[in-house]
Every structure is written in C-alpha cells, then in structure tokens.
Amino acid sequence: MSTACHGDAGDDLNKSTLHLKPNHLGEALGARLHKARVLFLPLAFASALAVFTLFPLVQQNMKTLAAFVGASAALCLWCLFLFLQARRTGRTLAVEIQLKPQHYLQACAQTAFLIYWGWYWPPAYSWLPFMLAQLLFAYAFDLLLNWSRRDTAALGFGQFPIVISINLFLWFKPDWFVLQFGLLALGLIAKEFLRWNKDGRASHIFNPSSFPLAVFSVVLLATGTTGITWGQEIATTQFYPPHIYLFLFLAGIPGQFFFGVTSMTMSAVLTTFVFGRVYFAVTGIYFFYDSFIPISVFLGMHLLFTDPATAPRTELGRILYGIFYGLSTVALYQWLGGMGLPTFYDKLLQVPVMNLSVRGVDRLARSRFLQRFDPAALGRSLVPRTRNLAYISIWALAFAGLSLTQSVGDDHPGQWLPFWTHACDEGRAYACPYLADMEVTLCNRGSGWACNEAGLMHIALSRSGEDRRRLNPTGALEVFRRGCDLSVEAACQNLTTLAAGQQNFVSGKPVLQDYPILLRGSKGEVEEREPAALLALACRQGWPDACSSVAQDQK
Length: 555
Prior knowledge:
Layout: H1 2-6, H2 25-33, H3 40-51, H4 56-59, H5 62-89, E1 94-98, H6 101-120, H7 123-126, H8 128-149, E2 152-156, H9 159-167, H10 178-193, E3 195-198, E4 201-204, H11 210-223, H12 231-237, H13 244-259, H14 262-283, H15 295-303, H16 315-338, H17 351-356, H18 358-365, H19 368-371, H20 384-404, H21 417-425, H22 431-444, H23 448-464, H24 473-485, H25 489-499, H26 515-518, H27 531-541, H28 544-554
Parallel strand pairs: 1-2
Antiparallel strand pairs: 3-4
Helix pairs in contact: 3-5, 3-8, 5-8, 6-9, 6-13, 8-9, 8-10, 10-11, 13-15, 13-20, 14-16, 14-20, 16-18, 21-22, 22-23, 23-24, 24-25, 27-28
C-alpha cells in the first residue's frame, strides 16, 4: 500500500512545498518543516494507519482488517490524485500551523476523563489503539479534504477533540468498525462544507463531533441496529469511577474559564436537576431512575454541546441554550423510553438542531423583552476572564450544594434495590417493572436471591397486567431455574411450583454471598468482602435484615 502511494514522485513534489504561517509553537516547527513536502504528511498518516493491519488486534477480525486496509488505500489514492493534480496544474500546496487553545484544552479534559474512566473499566484502555488509528485517519482525511478545496490546509490539534469526543459516546463493534471511520469522515465533511456567517464571521454550523453522532444515532434507531455498537455499555460504565461527577466538574473548569461556556453547562445541569426534583416530588420516584442527572448526560453537558464555535455569542443566549439542552434531554429520554428504544441517545440527538438555532437564540436574547434580563449587563465593567471566573464561582457553589445533598455523586439512592422495593410496595408508577429489571440484572451477575425475587416479580406483574409485553410467568421460569442452579432452595421450590401450575410461591432472604452483587448499585464491583463491612454497607443502603444483623453484632 505504501509503495503504491509513494509512486515515482521524485522532485515533482516541489510543486507542493510547505508554506508556514508560524505562530508561537509554529515558529519552532517551521525550522524543521520548511524543506518538507506537504503531501508526505497525509501519506505518512495513511501509511501509519496501514501499519495497524500487521497487529493481531486488527488481524483477528477480517472485517476490521478490511476497514483498515480500505481506509488506508483510499487515503493513499487521494494523495496520489492530489499529487498528479498539483503536478499538472502547478498548484502550490501549503500548510498553516494553527494551535488553538480551545482544541488542546478540550482534548486535555477529554483525555483526562478517558484515562480516569479506563482505570475502572479496562475495555476503555483496550480501545486506545483504535482511537489512535482514528486520529491518524482524521489527520490524513482533513488535510486532503482541505487541499481538495484550497491550496492551504490547517494543521494543529483540531482533530483531537473531534476523535476523543466521538469515542466518549459511541464505539462500533469489530464487524462494523468501518463505520467508526465513517463517523469521523462525516464530521470533517460537515465542518468543511456546512458553514454560515455568524455575527460577521464565517463559521461551521455544526459541532464536528456531535453532528455525526446525531446522524448515526438516527440511523441506528431507525434500523434497530444499536446492538452493533457499545453505546449502552459506554453510558453505563462511565459511572464506575468514584467521585466521577466531581472529576468532570474539575476537568471542565479550564475550558469554562478561557472560553466562557460556564453558563451553558450550569444552566443545563440545573434545569435537568430542577425537573428531576419536581418529578420526584410528584411521583415519588426518580425520572432517570438511578440518578438526577446520568453521568453520560453530565458528560455531554461539559464536553459535548459546549463548543464555543457553535454556541450562541450572547450571555443570555448561552443560558437559554443550556436550558434547551437540559429540557431536550428530558424529552428525548421520555420519548425513547416510551418507544422501547435505548435511552442513551438522549444527549446526542438534539445537538445539531440546537446548533442550527444559535442565531435565532441570539436574536431572541437581544430582543427588547429579554434584553433586560441579560446577566451580561451586570458584568460589562468586568474584563472577560474576571466575568468567567465569577460564573465559575457561582457554578462551584451550585455544584457543592448538589454534591452535599447527594443530588450528584456516588450515593444516589435510586441506584439501590431497597429504594425501588419500597416504591413498588407503595404502588409508585413504573417502580415495579424497574425493580424487576434490576433483579434480573442482579440475577445475571450471580445473585441467586435476586433470581428468585425476579421470578416472583415477573409473576406478580403478569397477574396485575402491568407491562405484560415484557414480564410474564414464562420469563419467571428462566430466572427460577438460574436461581436453583445457584443453590437457592426457594428458587428450586418455586420452579417446581410453577411447573406444577400451583400458586404457593415462597420468598427468601439474601445471604452473605449475595451482598457483593446486590450492593454495587450502578457502580463497579464492591471491594468489601468482610462480613461486618458488607452488612454495614447493606444497612446504610436500607436493607432491613442487614441492619438487624449489625444491631445484634453490636450488642
């Protein structure tokens, strides 16, 4: 592949000599690159991408291998086409070094989150080589796309936040890895072609990571093919690291300070939280079930929709923009859940529509009626950085309040079984079906007690007619059998009772071996194994039998 790309270029590549417009670090780079031939840059990226085909992690799946071979070959042919065109027309291709803070600061925040997440969910680290391959593809594709339209291409860190942001929300499984390259290509094409004039400045309309995420999400939903991605696993496991909300809050501060996007994040978070509080007050359960704001949504509020280039320019407009994101997330979650579709798309689908609205949002914010409410009027005497710091201080106080009340954090009660058992007993809407789903999940993780309880809940819901499409006695047979295989006497007895068509089903109590599974909630595995520590943790979560055992031990 590499040989075909190089061809017999020879000295003819002088037609594409590097022209630098240095700035800061660009001056240092210029001393080394002034004799380079610019088409060797994308060629080098494409060749490095081709090297991945030699590695077992790519070779072990023929479709993944084909994706790498195809992407590398396409980029090399594109290089050859541009070389021949430059040779024929006399074009002089150039590179302009652009090192923009919004690119590398965003990339640093995203990378920090990725590293922290991967420490507690190792598959994220296993994915890193594939992210590196995507980065090579993005650099080569972007350079070639630029030169296909003009003589000068930008080179900097712009591809980093695009690649990392996409990979924080959606991965395609090995058989479909070629679509991962498609995500990047679509985002870069949209950035190049879909542009408008915003406040006198030419700018891309769509966030180049959120646009392809939304488009692909629509296709996946429409075709019912979410299973070819790891999207649900990503959204679930991002809650595994301890104090992850605090980590994201801290990771977002540099970007908020330098680019003034605090008002967007803060208004989105507080809007979603207020809705969740009202919903809980009315229904007695949590809208997002195990949290007021799911961690993947919290991530989107910090590192997805806050791109300053595709956001409103007015301060009030940014606040409205954040409110719209929070409310749209709530609406999408409700719609997706009601349709029986995966709900993790709730923070992805709306961003391109919001990008299209930014000029209208700014006009609305500048209207005579709303202009009087513009908070920017209070800070016009402050320099931008001081004003940004003031917003960060307000946001820090709000976040501290949310954390102290467990509205965000590791100990939200909605992730634990006792809360939903109590809510089901009280007849709260949606509580019993959700409890049944939780028990099935815990059964699949190896809790025999949960298997027996899941079977009983299946039967109860079937009798009541609630959620009949998903839960029925036939489903109970499977979980009773699994509970019996795990040596739970009650499950074996209920399996026999169900097979005989009788009705005298029995419940049981969790044993010590169940607690490491039952107590993990939405987090990763529970590390405690000492009986006293497990019982104390179970008591704090609301397990009455555990509290009785703790009280007896203390006597």
